[in-house]
């Protein structure tokens, strides 16, 4: 089964995941004032994810100040989800876990098969999703999306902050929406 790209300005798939705090996150139920930033990460086994999420935790107050609600989510189980939240010392960042691979695929994420232990000595799950970063409008439509086939060269959160500032100031529309013949 192949991946399908989500289309800008169209509704994103449902997202309903448990949080490490014991609550649930249901995308759209209580959206950010301007946007929701949904960051799909590979899991506890990924050292690059940890570095990326430490940066997101650091910048989470800057996103919040702009009316952007932030969620990091993976297909890890509750225990591994909590361990990752602890590893990045999450205070501002919501951590979701238990993303189903079916849901990951609906979001257009790539799926990888586990290949044993990673460089930090943690076993990869049998199957897990590769990274994706999505900015969703409060009406549930896609504003920005980036998916990756592997953990490297992800969109920098500092750049996304600048993009959000520009988008809000200029009322910039979602792009990449054209679907007719070319």
Question: Which features characterize this protein?
Answer:
182 residues, alpha+beta, Glutaredoxin, seven-stranded mixed β-sheet, two-stranded antiparallel sheet, 4 helices, 9 strands, 27% helix
Q: Could you characterize what this model shows?
A:
It is a single chain. By secondary structure, the protein is an alpha+beta fold. It has one domain: Glutaredoxin. The chain has four helices and nine strands; from the N terminus they run βββαβαβαββββα. A seven-stranded mixed beta sheet has the order 2-1-5-4-3-8-9. Helix 2 links the parallel strand 4 and strand 5. The two termini are 25 Å apart.
Quick take:
This protein is α+β, with helices and mostly antiparallel strands. The protein is 27% helix and 22% strand. A hairpin with a 4-residue loop joins β1 (16-19) and β2 (24-26).
The portion of residues forming beta strands comes to: 15-25%
Q: Over the alpha carbons, how many angstroms does the gyration radius reach?
A: 16 Å
**Could you please say which CATH topology applies here?**
Glutaredoxin
> How many beta-strand segments?
9
The low-confidence runs, each spanning 5 or more residues with pLDDT under 50, are none
Assigned CATH superfamily: Glutaredoxin
Which overall shape is indicated by the principal axes computed on the Cα atoms? globular
Question: Strands across the major sheet, in which order?
Answer: 2-1-5-4-3-8-9
The domain count comes to 1
Instruction: Please write the string of helix (H) and strand (E) elements.
Output: EEEHEHEHEEEEH
């Amino acid at each position: 089964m192949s991946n399908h790209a989500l289309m800008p300005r169209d509704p994103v798939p449902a997202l309903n995941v448990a949080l490490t705090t014991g609550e649930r996150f249901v995308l759209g139920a209580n959206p950010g004032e301007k946007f929701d930033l949904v960051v799909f990460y590979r899991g506890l086994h990924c050292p690059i994810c940890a570095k990326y999420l430490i940066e997101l935790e650091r910048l989470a107050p800057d996103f919040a100040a702009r009316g952007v609600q932030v969620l990091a989510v993976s297909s890890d189980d509750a225990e591994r989800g909590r361990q990752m939240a602890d590893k990045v010392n999450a205070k501002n960042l919501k951590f979701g876990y238990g993303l189903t691979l079916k849901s990951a695929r609906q979001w257009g994420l790539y799926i990888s098969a586990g290949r044993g232990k990673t460089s930090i000595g943690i076993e990869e799950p049998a199957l897990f999703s590769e990274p994706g970063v999505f900015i969703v409008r409060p009406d549930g439509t896609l504003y920005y999306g980036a998916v990756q086939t592997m953990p490297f060269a992800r969109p920098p959160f500092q750049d996304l902050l600048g993009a959000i500032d520009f988008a809000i100031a200029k009322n910039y529309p979602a792009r990449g929406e054209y679907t007719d013949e070319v």
